[in-house]
Design a protein that fits this description.
mainly alpha
Length: about 70
Amino acid sequence: MSATDQYTVKELTESLGISRQACYKWLNRQPTERDLFITELSDEVVRMAKKHNHTLGTRGMARSHQ
């Protein structure tokens, strides 16, 4: 369930103190280089986690610091 299933766009934008026009402008904007980088980085983290069967974590980090 998304937030818009529970609240109207008007309620959400008013609670955030922004105009509906600003909200729609942001939703329809072209992604920046940073947005694309973050998406690519996130995808890579997911791929690595799957590749390593989600075994990278605090245990692995603790071992690397010993």
